[in-house]
Amino acid sequence: MKRTLLILTLLLSGISFSQDAIILSQENANEKGITPLWPKCDRSRQTPTQCFDQKLRNHIIQNFEYPEIAMNEGLSGTVTVEFIINKKGKVEVLEVTGAHRYLQREAIRIIRAIPKMKPGKWGEKPIAVAYTVPITFRKPQ
Hints:
Elements (H helix, E strand, L loop, with lengths): L1 H15 L6 E3 H7 L15 H16 L4 H5 L4 E9 L5 E7 L3 H12 L7 E3 L2 E13 L4
Parallel strand pairs: 1-5
Antiparallel strand pairs: 2-3, 2-5, 4-5
GO cellular component, one term: plasma membrane protein complex
InterPro entries: TonB-dependent_transducer (IPR051045), TonB/TolA_C (IPR006260), TonB_C (IPR037682)
Keywords: Cell inner membrane, Cell membrane, Membrane, Protein transport, Signal, Transmembrane, Transmembrane helix, Transport
C-alpha cells in the first residue's frame, strides 16, 4: 500500500510540474523570437526584441528617482533585478541583489511600474520570459 501511494504521488507531482512552469531566459527567448510585446511595439519599425529593449531602457530612465535617504547617506551602487513577464503579461520580481536596501527598493519600484503587455508566445501558448536588469545608482554631484 505504501509503495502504491509513493508511485501515485510521484506520478501526480510529475504531471503538475509539466510544461505550465516553463520560463525562458531572455537569451533563449530572443533566439526563438519569443518576446513579450510592450504596448505600442506592434506599430514599431523595430523588431519586437529591439522595441522591448528600447522601451525598457526608456522606462527605467523616465521613472528613475534617487531615494532622498540614500542621497543623504551617500549611498551608490548597482542593483540587479531579476524578473519575469508572466503568462498574463504582468511583471513579477524574482530576486534583487546588490547595493543598499534603499536602492534595492527603488529598483523594485521602477521594475514593478512596467506596464502590462502581451506575453511572449510559444506557438499559440503564452509563456513567461525572465529578464535580468542592472540599475546603477550614482550620487548626483
